[in-house]
Write a structure and sequence with these properties.
The complex is a heterodimer.
Chain A (H helix, E strand, L loop, with lengths): L12 H8 L3 H35 L4 H16 L2 H24 L8 E2 L2 E2 L14 H34 L2 H9 L4 H31 L11 H9 L15 H31 L5 H10 L1
Antiparallel strand pairs in A: 1-2
Chain B lengths: L2 H8 L18 H37 L4 H16 L2 H16 L11 H26 L3 H9 L4 H31 L17 H12 L5 H27 L20
The chains are: A mainly alpha, B mainly alpha.
Protein name (chain A): ABC transporter permease subunit
Pfam family, one (chain A): BPD_transp_1
GO cellular component, one term (chain A): plasma membrane
Chain lengths: ~290, ~270
């Protein structure tokens, strides 16, 4: 990175450290931090969308739709965490390949499951075996986002479902008295009001989502945990210009600090948003604010 | 191999008893059920031990966090923040790396590098922090009248804590604590994915489930079996904790009793 880094063996102290921390693999580590942040930024809204859909489905008057909404939330919430992460990635991958296989190779006569192998025609492979490396990585990342969204969507659905029920019944009745249809009352009255009730649950979910990101490592994405393991291991002089003993402790300590800081910052920000949202609301929090000001 | 033979060979495989080689070639449903069930022994071991030992530290932490003296309060607050603010997964990795480097200092740390003790220590601290926060919340919501009544009877200090504060705290915290127990058991599945090696392929339920999924490239059999076992385990926990909850609430009128509601919280 820096010009004085050409011969690391002559360096000492801080200048050695500055060179060491800017090697190519370390840059990969920093990129993976960005990847985690991007994943959070994409997953949060998508999961919220899934959750909103499932919560509205669970309230629907149409029975199969209600079953779908309730079934989705209770199944995902009832089964242990990482089992889902391990399960979904393979299952989604196979589902996509199976669908493409049905569309692209209709005249394929062999069975797809041959004993312990899952065989689809070449054109249906995802991503195509000829495609470049970045496509494979993006596809893996996409699967990870989808998995996170499905799992966290179920949790968000539960929170939003509770929030929708927490909106005072009188509000809906008033809307109906004004002649609004069910749909209008839902979009104009219920949805704008539910967020105050949903925020405590959603902020809790955000904390949980932050803490779930190291599991990306299990999904086959080269994330921070992967690079910390890779870089922290013992390095001998034969393979690197920066030989060092086993430094896993330091790398994982850094990860721990990263997550603690992230949590702390989120806590502060969410507390502020909550304060903003409760202002003037007819809830205990809003009442407390009013009294404090008076 | 018939199913009975399979059970004989693999029922205690996770403890190193029975057949040494894991099943190969044809993977029957019976093998799936037996081996994953055998792995569940480790989940129960980690969960039960961490929960019982963690309970005492949790009470101490809760009392410490609600203490007016910052000398007690600050360490408790920091401990709880440290373990609740970071992913359990990273805690496992960090602890394993720590124990590995401590091993070279003193042979006292040798057993800590294997899962049965090292992971247990992490889970113990982790559940203590989570339950400590629950108990702290319960301490804050003890009815004022109870304390005043205790004062009126001339109770103070240890007597008041033992007779009034502690039982009420436990009663108030119990539904949330039940959820914590369930998720501690779920969290035990992370142990063998986080650096702690599975010695001679003696792993937990998820370890064997992912073994099957890797070998057969078919996630649709082992993971649902794993889910089945965990739902069963969850029901057992709810039954046990429900019985305790009944006992804690038996002096109350029927409608004031606190009901348990399952509130899953996913990852720690």
């Amino acid at each position: 990175m820096f010009s004085y880094c050409t011969d690391p063996s002559t360096l000492e102290g801080l200048s050695w450290l500055s060179c060491y921390l800017t090697t190519g693999k370390h840059l990969n580590l920093y990129i993976s931090v960005v990847v985690v942040l991007v994943l959070l930024a994409i997953t949060a809204p998508v999961a919220l969308l899934f959750g909103f859909g499932a919560a509205s489905a669970a309230r629907s008057k149409f029975l199969p739709l209600r079953w779908f909404g309730k079934g989705y939330t209770s199944i995902v919430r009832g089964v242990p965490d990482i089992a889902f992460f391990l399960f979904f990635v393979i299952a989604l991958d196979q589902a996509f390949e199976w669908m493409r296989h049905k569309v692209k190779c209709p005249d394929w006569d062999q069975p797809i499951r041959q004993g312990i192998d899952f065989v689809v025609c070449d054109a249906a492979k995802l991503p195509l075996s000829a495609s470049p490396q970045w496509v494979h990585e993006t596809y893996g990342f996409f699967l990870a986002v989808l998995t996170f969204s499905i799992v966290f969507g179920a949790f968000a659905a539960n929170v939003l479902y509770g929030a929708m029920r927490a909106v005072p019944r009188a509000q809906i009745e008033t809307a109906e008295a004004y002649g609004m249809t069910t749909r209008q009352a839902f979009w104009r009255i219920l949805v704008p009001q539910m967020w105050v009730y949903a925020l405590p649950g959603l902020s809790n979910l955000w904390m949980v989502l932050i803490k779930a990101t190291p599991l990306l490592f299990l999904l086959g994405v080269e994330d921070i945990v992967y690079w910390a393991r890779e870089l922290g291991g013992t390095k001998t002089e034969r393979f690197t210009e920066y030989p060092h003993p086993n430094w896993h402790v330091w790398y994982f300590a850094a990860l721990l600090v990263f997550y603690l800081c992230f949590t702390k910052v989120s806590e502060v920000v969410l507390a502020r948003i909550m304060k903003r949202l409760t202002k003037g609301q007819a809830t205990a929090g809003g009442e407390a604010q009013r009294k404090a000001a008076a | 191999m018939s199913c009975v033979e399979t059970i004989q060979a693999y029922a205690f495989r996770s403890l190193g008893i029975g057949e040494r080689l894991l099943p190969r070639g044809e993977y029957t449903l019976c093998e799936h059920f037996t081996l994953i069930g055998s792995g569940l022994i480790w989940n129960v071991y980690f969960g039960a031990l961490a929960l019982t030992t963690g309970f005492f530290l949790a009470v101490a932490l809760a009392v410490g966090k609600s203490s007016p003296n910052p000398l007690w309060r600050k360490p408790a607050e920091w401990f709880i923040f440290l373990f609740r603010g970071s992913p359990l997964f990273i805690q496992f990795f960090f602890a394993y790396a720590c124990f590995l480097s401590l091993k070279s200092v003193s042979s006292f740390f040798d057993p800590f590098t294997s899962a049965w003790l090292g992971a247990l220590v992490v889970l113990f601290f982790n559940t203590a922090a989570y339950s400590g926060e629950i108990f702290y919340g319960a301490l804050l919501s003890i009815p004022k009248g109870d304390i005043e009544a205790a004062d009126a009877y001339g109770m103070s200090g240890w007597t008041r804590f033992r007779r009034i504060t502690f039982p009420t705290m436990l009663r108030l915290a119990w539904p949330a604590y039940t959820n914590e127990a369930i998720f501690l058991f779920h969290a035990t599945t992370l142990v063998f994915f986080s650096g702690f090696p599975a010695w001679r392929q003696q792993g937990d339920a998820l370890y064997y489930a992912s073994y099957f999924a890797d070998k057969t490239f078919n996630p649709f059999v082992p993971y649902p079996i794993l889910a089945f076992y965990f739902i069963l385990l969850t029901l057992v926990i709810i039954a046990i904790f429900g019985a305790v909850n009944k006992h804690l609430n038996k002096h109350l009128p029927q409608e004031r009793r606190r009901k348990f509601r399952l509130r899953p919280n996913l990852i720690r």
